[in-house]
Amino acid sequence: MYKAAIIGAGFISTRRHLPAWRRLRRSVRVVALCDRNRAQAEAVSRQFGVPAAYDDLQQMLETERPDFVDICTPPATHADIAVTALQADRHVLIEKPMAMNAAECERIIQAERESKGRVTVAHTELFHQSVIEARQRIRRGDLGRFTGMRIFYSTPVTLMTADPGHFANRLPGGTIGETSPHVVYLSGAFIGPIRGVWSRGQKILPEYPWSPFEDYRLELMGDCAASSAALTYTSKHSAFLLELWGTEGILKIDMQSKVLVNYNRVSQSPRGIGLSAFKEATQIAAGAFTNGVGYLAGRFRNIHDRLIGEFFERSVNGREPAVTSEAGRETVLVMNRIGKQLQSQAKRVDALASVKQ
Ligand SMILES: NC(=O)c1ccc[n+]([C@@H]2O[C@H](COP(=O)([O-])OP(=O)(O)OC[C@H]3O[C@@H](n4cnc5c(N)ncnc54)[C@H](O)[C@@H]3O)[C@@H](O)[C@H]2O)c1
Question: For residue 62, how far is its CA from the centre of ligand 1 (angstroms)?
Answer without folding.
Answer: 23
